[in-house]
C-alpha cells in the first residue's frame, strides 16, 4: 500500500537526508557499509546519522516551541554554532520566565 500522506518529520528533511535514509535501509543499517559507499570514515557516518536523528526529534518539538526548534535546527545545519544556539535559547527562556 503506497503512502498517501508523508509524515511531517519526513517532509522537513532535505533530499540528501532522504537519500541517506534510503541508502541506510538498503545497507540493512550497516554504518560500515554506508561509510564505504560514501567514501568516508565510520565516525563521519555516525555523526551524520546522529544529526539526522536530532532533526527528526526536532520535528516533534516544533509545536511545543517553534523558536527553540528553529535555533536548534540552525545549529544542526551548521548555520550557527552550538554555543551561540545555547546562548540564544537560554536568553529566550529567561525572558519568557520574566514575562
Task: Quickly list its features.
single chain; 99 residues; mainly alpha; 2 domains; 73% helix
Can you characterise this structure?
It is a single chain. By secondary structure, the protein is mainly α. It folds into 2 domains: 7-62; 65-99, no CATH class. The chain contains 6 helices and no strands. The protein has helices spanning 8-11, 15-26, 31-38, 42-61, 66-76, 82-98. α3 (31-38) packs across α4 and α4 (42-61) packs antiparallel against α5. The longest helix has 20 residues, at 42-61. The protein is flat, with a radius of gyration of 16 Å. The N and C termini lie far apart (50 Å). The model has no long low-confidence stretch (mean pLDDT 87).
Discrete helix count: 6
Query: What are the low-pLDDT stretches, counting only 5+ consecutive residues below 50?
Result: none
Mean pLDDT: 87
Count of individual domains: 2
Task: State the helicity in percent bands.
Answer: over 70%
**Main sheet overview:** none
> Strand percentage, roughly?
under 5%
* Number of DSSP strand runs: 0
Question: N-to-C terminal Cα separation, in Å?
Answer: 50 Å
Apparent shape: flat
Structural class computed from helices and strand pairing:
mainly alpha
Q: What is the CA-based Rg, rounded?
A: 16 Å
In N-to-C order, the SSE pattern is HHHHHH
Amino acid at each position: 500500500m503506497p503512502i498517501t500522506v508523508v509524515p511531517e518529520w519526513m517532509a522537513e528533511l532535505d533530499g540528501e537526508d532522504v537519500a541517506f535514509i534510503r541508502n541506510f535501509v538498503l545497507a540493512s543499517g550497516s554504518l560500515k557499509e554506508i561509510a564505504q559507499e560514501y567514501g568516508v570514515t565510520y565516525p563521519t557516518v555516525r555523526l551524520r546519522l546522529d544529526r539526522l536523528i536530532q532533526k527528526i526529534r526536532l520535528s516533534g518539538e516544533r509545536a511545543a516551541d517553534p523558536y527553540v526548534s528553529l535555533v536548534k535546527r540552525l545549529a544542526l545545519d551548521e548555520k550557527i554554532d552550538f554555543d551561540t544556539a545555547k546562548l540564544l535559547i537560554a536568553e529566550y527562556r529567561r525572558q519568557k520566565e520574566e514575562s
